[in-house]
Amino acid sequence: MPTFFENKQLVIPGDLLAEGEYFAGNNTYKEENKIYASRIGLAEYANKKVNIVALRAFYFPKEGDVVIGTVKEVGFSGWTINIKSPYTAILRASDVLSRSFKPQNDELSQVLTTGDLIVAKVASYDRFHDPQLTVGEPGLGKITKGQIMNMTPTKIPRVIGRQGSMISMIKNETGCQIILGLNGTILITGETPKNEELAMAAITKIEEESHTSGLTDRITKFLKEEKTKMEKK
Amino acid sequence: MKDKTIKLLNKKGLRLDGRKLDELRSVKLEVGILPNADGSAYVEHGKNKIIVGVFGPREMHPKHLQRADRMVLRCRYHMAPFSVPERKSPAPSRRENELSKVIRDSLLPSLFVENYPRTGVDLYIEVLQADGGTRCASITAASLALADAGLPMRDIVVACAAGKVNGKIALDLMDTEDKLGDADVPVAYMPNLNAITLLQMDGKLSTKEFEEAVKMAIEGCKKISNIQKEALQTKYKVIKQEEVEE
After folding, report:
1. DSSP summary character for residue B87
2. pLDDT tens by residue, B120-154
3. What distances in angstroms separate CA A106 from CA A75, A93, A101, A135, one per listed residue?
4. Top CATH class, A9-54
5. Which CATH number fits domain A147-232: 1.10.3720.10, 3.40.50.2020, 1.10.357.10, 3.30.1370.10?
6. What is the three-class DSSP state of A117?
7. For the whole model, what pTM was predicted?
8. Does residue B191 sit at the A interface (CB-CB below 8 Å)?
């Protein structure tokens, strides 16, 4: 049962990765007991499972994902939200108002209007229906302050780090609140714009070097250096 | 009518541009050249120059073209007015509509259409300069552009043609050979799965000649496939090099 790649090797669609009793993980597929790559990315192998960390992908909605979206349209009984995926999401008015919604009493555009950014959770999604969002949990809802940045959705797990080590470190060092939308949008809110910029610089650095090892340590060092520079000024 | 006096092969058996019978034109491929598109590729195949842009997967509009059970691939093959010696009208012609369809069908088997219901992918192929074999060069580039857009694929499709000139089977015909030659057989191929996704023939060939032409075209496909892989990897190689340095 051989594998045909080295760890973290760059593979492209159609590359034969393994043959035999293996499981096809992310961005791979199995045909006649052979596992092939289906996206450009770095191949990994763990517990009989072949995985590819894609370098190019788009966000595909999944139930329970926290995403950051933009209000695209105010509808009759809810909003349509752009979550940077092949499907536009729906947010129902009754979910936001947390009471029954009567069109004659409520003006929806006063609650959320086109262009507003929201943090929401994917409440449901399947092949036949567009994803439905919910904001009925603490921490979700309209974004009122902070900065937004975008990155490839497949790199978000790297920003989170192992058991959240990376993200909690950045939060501690910069004193910023960071919300990672799994669709590749990130919200950063800090006490001063300088702190926010520092957090953004760290995240950009992670995106650029996402494939390297020992990244958490290097980012910690980077943040500490930048902080002393800021204090000197 | 066919001009029988024109010789497409010289005494040494070389072709008009000095190629051997089983020799490809030079192929240059580049990936990710259009920042505004989700995925893109550029190909120079001999004198052919073709640019491909991909958008999506995104919501399919108009809505009646959506399919409840699969992703829709929409493809437009277009030749620029200046792509041929005589100005070509920019309006889509019968030939262009047909090629759009043929290219779409040759790429579809490589995509997991059933995984993305109700979505659409738009593929725009712009021929800047044409010199025979544009459909093959388009397929080669389009498949790279789809991979660059981050679409999951079974394999990267590659295409190449073989034909018959002055009674001999030859690889990768250029425009004059195509027009004055006896036959042309374009083949699109998925090298890792060993599957043909497009097979056409115009002109006349015997069964034996046809088989020889297909075999030759597949050999050509394999050669182009290596160039294709390299082109796709170069775009992401920067990442690998950094890793080695550390």
Report:
1. P
2. 999 999 999 999 999 999 999 999 999 999 999 99
3. 12, 9, 7, 18
4. mainly beta
5. 3.30.1370.10
6. strand
7. 0.90
8. yes
Task: Count chain A–chain B contacts defined by CB atoms under 8 A.
Answer: 85
* Domain total of chain B: 1
What average pLDDT score do residues A192-215 get?
86
**Looking at the predicted complex, does its ipTM rise above 0.85?**
yes
Is B109 an 8 Å CB contact of chain A?
no
CATH 2.40.50.140-classified regions of chain A: 66-142
pLDDT of B4: 55
Does A56 touch chain B if contact means CB atoms closer than 8 Å?
yes
User: Å from A117 to nearest chain B CA?
Assistant: 20
- B56–A contact, CB cutoff 8 A: yes
CA distance readout (Å), A209 to A202, B55, B241: 11, 27, 12
In a domain, B103, yes or no: yes
Q: Which residues of A touch B190 (CB under 8 A)?
A: 14
A127 at B interface, C-beta within 8 A: yes
Is CATH 2.40.50.140 the classification given to domain A66-142? Answer: yes
Residue of A nearest to B191 (CA): A14
B167 part of contact set with chain A, CB < 8 Å: no
Average pLDDT over residues B151-177: 95
Structure tokens at B18: 């000095």
Question: Which residue among B58, B153, B239 places its CB closest to the CB of A38?
Answer: B153
Q: Which domain holds residue B122?
A: 27-245
Whether residues B155 and A13 touch (CB distance < 8 A) is answered with yes
> Nearest 5°: CA angle at A40, between B160 and A50?
120
Q: How many CB atoms lie within 10 A of CB B61?
A: 9
